Amino acid sequence: MTVFLNGKLLPLEQATVSVLDRGFIFGDGVYELVPVYSRVPFRLEEHLARLERSLGETKIRNPYSRAQWRAHVYGLIDAHPHQDQGVYFQVTRGVAKRDHAFPKNVDPTVFMMSNPLVNPPAEQVEKGSAAVTAQDNRWFRCDIKSISLIGNCLLRQLSAEAGGAETILFREGKLTEASASNVFIVKRGVIQSPPKNNLILPGITYDVVVELARANSMALEFLDIPEADVRAADEIWVTSSSKEVLAIVELDGKRVGDGRPGPQFRRMYQLYQEFKQKVMRAGKREAVSA
Ligand SMILES: Cc1ncc(COP(=O)(O)O)c(C=O)c1O
User: Fold this and answer.
1) What is the Å distance from ligand 1's center to 105 Cα?
2) Does residue 83 sit in helix, strand or coil?
3) Which residues pair with 135 in a beta bridge?
4) Which of 32, 166, 181 most suits a substitution to test ligand 1, by most atoms within 8 Å of the C-beta?
5) Is 22 exposed, middle or buried (0-12, 13-18, 19+ CB in 10 A)?
6) 208 CA from centroid of ligand 1 (Å)
7) What is the DSSP letter of 9?
8) What is the chain's pLDDT, residue by residue, as a tens digit (290 residues)?
9) With contact defined as beta carbons under 8 Å apart, do 143 and 198 qualify?
10) At a CB cut-off of 8 Å and minimum separation 6, what does 234 contact?
11) Residue 70: CB partners within 8 Å, gap ≥ 6?
12) Is 187 noted as a catalytic residue in this protein?
């Protein structure tokens, strides 16, 4: 497997970083995961814009221009044989003597890898998945895509142990998101989701779902969603770059709606697949030399 480390493509076994890297010591870094379909990165510009924002919010120096980021992503895709890939990249603050305060004059560490993309299998899309719920006990900057994911890992483990696909989170009695995805519900035909703020990650898939709903005149609103509304929802969906749009049909062991993926989900899933096909057919790569 070929990976990217600090400007170079090299075999995984040769890609090493110092144990003093602040990513290792403090989880002091940010990341992205871009899905690639038929070798075309999906929403690359949006992922790069979110990365730039995460770097800005954490005051980590961005080592590359937008065009350089693009070139590195394309280079990594080209180094892999799979048509569909998940390109992961992270930037940490760099290597320095352990001290919480930022080091001066340190180069950020950039690591990128690509794995075959695993979207939910057809059976899971057809039947839906189970989820559990938990209190959202993460920090108040969930809008930053930070590599410090221990909170998310602990929460995800709850559903993993219960055989579920996700852990859906409530803070002060209101829906936030899930451990690694955004959440939508359907109530009396209206698609609802929490507004973007510091309590959720601004999901790229969330934006696609919102655009598709608007373009197809599906009723949609953003609002604070009480826990009781989630438990009484007709449909629950989770969205992420790897899960795409997935129906949750069982929550804490109770049926959601009639226990099957609902009509709004089926429509949105179809629209999402059609949109993906359109992007792939266009097959456009942005100019690398901007
Ligand atoms: C906490 C959290 N929320 C939402 C998402 C969905 O984001 P995206 O649609 O950009 O993959 C993710 C994806 O990793 C996530 O980790």
Assistant:
1) 32
2) coil
3) 170
4) 181
5) buried
6) 13
7) E
8) 999 999 999 999 999 999 999 999 999 999 999 999 999 999 999 999 999 999 999 999 999 999 999 999 999 999 999 999 999 999 999 999 999 999 999 999 999 999 999 999 999 999 999 999 999 999 999 999 999 999 999 999 999 999 999 999 999 999 999 999 999 999 999 999 999 999 999 999 999 999 999 999 999 999 999 999 999 999 999 999 999 999 999 999 999 999 999 999 999 999 999 999 998 888 877 665 54
9) yes
10) 185, 186, 187, 188, 189, 256, 257, 262, 264
11) 44, 48, 285, 286, 288, 290
12) no
Q: What does DSSP assign to residue 287?
A: -
Instruction: Enter the tokens of residue 116.
Output: 């075959």
- Please list, in sequence order, all residues whose beta carbon lies within 8 angstroms of the beta carbon of residue 99, skipping any fewer than 6 positions away: none
Query: Position of tokens 């009396």?
Result: 188
Q: What is the pTM of this model?
A: 0.97
* Helical H segments across 35-172, by residue range: 44-58, 66-78, 122-127, 150-161
d(CA 96, CA 119): 38
- Which of 8, 59, 104, 145 is labelled catalytic? 145
